Amino acid sequence: DDRLTLFITHGGANSMLETATRGKPVIAIPLYGDQMKNAKLMRKYGFGVIVEKTELLGGRGLHEAIDRVISDKK
Q1: What is the pLDDT of residues 42-54, one digit of tens each?
Q2: pTM above 0.85, yes or no
Q3: GO molecular function: any one (predicted)?
Q4: Can you list the domains of the chain with their CATH numbers?
Q5: pLDDT-derived band at 2, boundaries 50, 70, 90
């Protein structure tokens, strides 16, 4: 969908696969299980960033991640 600028997800396998096949950048906020591994792979291949749940307090970490992803023209 061209209306989608970026996708914020917990980093589950299905979400990551759907996003990767659509070529949209990701902000992953992994919480448990395989989510951190998936998020690290996403970051390694350059289609997103990771925000730790501890960075969500006050919204600053998420706000900064959104700005970083939107301004990255890769």
Answers
A1: 999 998 999 999 8
A2: yes
A3: glucuronosyltransferase activity
A4: 7-71 (3.40.50.2000)
A5: confident
Query: What is the tens place of the pLDDT at every residue in 7-59?
Result: 999 999 999 988 888 889 999 999 999 999 999 999 999 989 999 998 988 87
Instruction: For the chain, give the number of residues.
Output: 74
For the chain, the first-to-last Cα distance in angstroms comes to: 18
Long-range contact pairs involving 6-11 (C-beta distance under 8 Å, separation at least 24): 6/66, 6/69, 6/70, 8/62, 10/35, 11/35, 11/36, 11/38, 11/39, 11/42, 11/50
Q: How many CB atoms lie within 10 A of CB 38?
A: 22
d(CA 63, CA 28): 13
Q: Which residues share a beta bridge with 7?
A: 26
Q: Is 16 exposed, middle or buried (0-12, 13-18, 19+ CB in 10 A)?
A: buried
